[in-house]
Amino acid sequence: MTVMQTSPVATEQASTPADLCAAPPRRHPRPDGQDSYTISEVVAFTGLTAHTLRWYERIGLMSHIDRSHTGQRRYSNRDLDWLDFVSKLRLTGMPVADMVRYAELVREGETTYAERHELLESTRRDVLARIAELRDTLAVLDRKISFYAGGSTA
Questions:
Q1: Angle at the Cα of 83 (from 36 to 17), degrees rounded to 5?
Q2: pTM (2 decimals)?
């Protein structure tokens, strides 16, 4: 999920390209145009808590979330895609400050592609290093498991 694709998305506020994950899009519960989700629906779809969703909005990790006439948050399919990507970034171990910086860069538009690219490349290097550490750890565990199973000495 570190490969990014930019495609134009029509919005009321701006016509800047949206940064979307290049992996096959997740199936959305509702088609575009009918995608108005309450915070409780987003909680059910994503597994995130309402507190986390509000916090993401407050710190700038989520762009402006539309509101109903009564002031309730209304999320779109685009918001669900962004939350899916943010969840992937969290799994990489990317610091929240870097995720917020990435979100700011996305909102700034195409002129920030180079900086976004470097941020994702840096995160990718960190993930590869962690994978190597985990492989080494797995090898140690496998040797110990083999030893206790009577397969060899370790």
A1: 80
A2: 0.74
